[in-house]
Write a structure and sequence with these properties.
Layout (H helix, E strand, L loop, with lengths): L2 E4 L9 H9 L6 E6 L11 H10 L4 E6 L7 H6 L2 E7 L6 H10 L3 E6 L17 E5 L14 H15 L4 E5 L7 H7 L3 E4 L1 H4 L4 H9 L2
Parallel strand pairs: 1-8, 2-3, 3-4, 4-5, 5-6, 6-7, 7-8
Length: about 220
């Protein structure tokens, strides 16, 4: 059974407190917070003040995904804004080990994300240092995209590495997650499913979260 991390990016921003409180009442394990800077990805989401506002009302840990260039500049600020997990992109971090160590020093759980074109093998030297590996199953930047089928193979490879070397990191997948592919993802080794529009556009988001969790 995977944990569910609904992406607040798909919430109604005019009723953000209401939607956070809905997630509090659900079986979601985390609230996924997508931070976009318009440079690393072709979209801008929200920044520190909104993250702080979410944290004030959230009763679930904030799973903060930094889709930004030079994330080292903002690690401490987002930690102070309530991030329990800080996930940075491999593609944005030329000194990834140093970045991961800094996240640990701040008292957050360190995660690293991979874009669809990036093979899992590039993380071979860092897997023992991270708490989370986030596999992007769409090209990051926009919600509601179609799931990339090659994701299954990437997750299987990552899970094989985890088992082979006895690592303890969790595998998270983000993009196009629904009730059709969730059971396959869990079988391949996924621990955390991120779902945005699939949850928030459903008639009963709390039930949808529970259905995903039981998939």
């Amino acid at each position: 059974m995977a944990e569910i991390a609904p992406s607040i990016l798909a919430a109604d921003f005019a009723n953000l407190q209401r939607d956070v409180e809905m997630l509090n009442a659900s079986t979601a394990g985390y609230i996924h917070v997508d931070i976009m800077d318009g440079m690393f990805v072709p979209n801008i989401s929200f920044g520190l003040p909104v993250c702080e506002a979410i944290h004030r009302h959230a009763q679930k840990p904030l799973d903060v995904h930094l889709m930004i260039e030079q994330p080292d500049r903002y690690l401490e600020a987002f930690r102070n804004a309530g991030a329990a997990t800080l996930t940075v992109h491999y593609e944005a971090c030329p000194h990834l080990h140093r970045t991961i160590q800094h996240i640990k020093e701040l008292g957050a759980l360190p995660g690293v994300a991979l874009n669809p074109h990036t093979p899992v093998e590039v993380l071979s030297e860092i897997l023992g240092d991270v708490s989370l590996v986030l596999i992007m199953s769409v090209n990051p930047g926009f919600g509601g995209q179609k799931f990339i089928e090659n994701t299954y193979k990437k997750i299987a490879k990552l899970n094989d590495l985890r088992e082979k070397f006895g690592y303890t990191f969790k595998i998270e997948v983000d993009g196009g997650v629904n009730l059709n592919n969730a059971p396959v993802l869990v079988r391949e080794g996924v621990d955390i499913l991120v779902a945005g529009s699939f949850v928030f556009s459903s008639a009963d988001p709390i039930k949808t979260i529970e259905d995903l969790r039981n998939s």
